Amino acid sequence: MKSAVKKFETTVNTVYENGKILVMGEGGLDSPVMLVGEAPGEQETMQKRPFVGKAGKNLDSFLHETGLSRDRLYITNTVKFRPTRVNEKTARVSNRPPSREEIALCLPFLREEMRIVAPKVVVTLGNVALRAVSGNPKATIGTLHGAMMPGAPVELFALYHPASVIYNRSLAETYMEDLRALRRALDQVLD
Ligand code: URA
């Protein structure tokens, strides 16, 4: 993994001359489950760890529902740096969805992570990760959530992004059902 990370850092530094603060994946390289999010936010960038901010807190309580603890997981993001926009009036920096170019730049490294960790199941969080891992740019979480994705190149279970539940409370019940379905799916696949 170390040499793959080095190569990826070099690629990113070639594209962005000021460099980027990278938030790399975290967890055992023999983890049976790999969780893939969208991109780090402010807290993640400050601590250089994925899912440690508000979305991470949500994720922890959701994981509880699946019986999975962080120590059996490898957690990563599709894009390894924080995509931001700056409000011209207030100079406030906020998150934005990653661009197609940012995703394309990081995708080879995500594939490399999946090859090295070789998890039994990849759980995608939200549309960006679902499309990146499935290789299907038209896949949508609204129809695929809560189940193993048929025909995907890896064993892929799609979940809504934990942040979307913060912004859309009506998803909470669906999310809980999806987590219970994930637990059942993992029970079948993991020993
Ligand atoms: N949201 C993500 O998708 N990833 C993180 O690491 C944090 C928030």
Automatic annotation (TrEMBL):
Source organism of the structure: Gehongia tenuis
A single MF term (Gene Ontology): metal ion binding
Sequence ranges assigned to domain Uracil-DNA glycosylase-like in this UniProt record: 24-180
Keywords: 4Fe-4S, DNA damage, DNA repair, Hydrolase, Iron, Iron-sulfur, Metal-binding
Protein name: Type-4 uracil-DNA glycosylase
Keyword Oxidoreductase assigned: no
The enzyme's E.C. designation: 3.2.2.27
GO biological process: DNA repair
Gene3D superfamilies: Uracil-DNA glycosylase-like domain
NCBIfam families the UniProt entry points to: UDG_fam4
Name of the top EC class for this enzyme: hydrolase
